[in-house]
Amino acid sequence: MLNLKAVTAGLATVAALISAPSAHADRVDDYVAAYGQDAICPVLDEYPTNAGILGIVNHLVDSEGFTSYSAGLVIAHSVILFCPKHVSVLRKFADTYNGTRSV
User: Fold this and answer.
1) What are phi and psi of 96, to 5 degrees?
2) Chain centre to alpha carbon of residue 97
3) Backbone Cα Rg of the chain
4) Nearest to residue 73, comparing CAs of 2, 1, 4, 9?
5) How far is C-alpha 71 from the geometric centre of its chain's CA atoms?
6) CA-to-CA distance for 103 and 65, rounded, in angstroms?
7) What is the per-residue pLDDT for 54?
8) 84 DSSP assignment
9) Stated pTM of the model
10) What is the distance between the alpha carbons of residues 76 and 3, in angstroms, rounded to a whole number?
């Protein structure tokens, strides 16, 4: 099981990412372009919970070779670009694992 501190490190920047997605192309952007709309968002549609986000993080780290931080970027960018209705799910996740509250 993935260390929750590692997950927190990956998703602690969700609020900042919501307003400032990356402008450069890299592995995260390539993955988001290939799988964000057809894989990440459908999982969040079916599991719009902390467990759903953790499941995506675990897959990205264990099967795709991302760090937990990069997995957080993949999820955040996918949500921003393809399924912004799930921004509140990301904020709740960040609140849970950062011990703070989003506005």
Assistant:
1) -60, -45
2) 13
3) 12
4) 9
5) 6
6) 32
7) 95
8) G
9) 0.74
10) 19
Q: Evaluate if residue 58 carries a pLDDT over 90.
A: yes
Q: Which amino acid is residue 58, in one-letter code? A: N
Neighbours of 91 (CB within 10 A): 18
Matching residue, tokens 């709309």: 37
For 88, residues 6+ apart whose C-beta sits below 8 A from its C-beta are none
CA 73/CA 75 separation, integer angstroms: 5
Q: Which of 33, 35, 34, 53 is nearest to 45 (CA)?
A: 53
Query: How far apart, in whole angstroms, are the C-alpha atoms of residue 90 and residue 53?
Result: 8
Q: 77 vs 17, which has greater pLDDT?
A: 77
* Segments making up each domain of the chain, as ranges: 4-98
Phi, psi of 94 (to 5 degrees): -60, -40
Q: How far apart are CA 67 and CA 99, in angstroms?
A: 22
The span from the CA of 52 to the CA of 28, in Å, is 19
85-99 pLDDT, tens digit each: 999 999 999 888 876
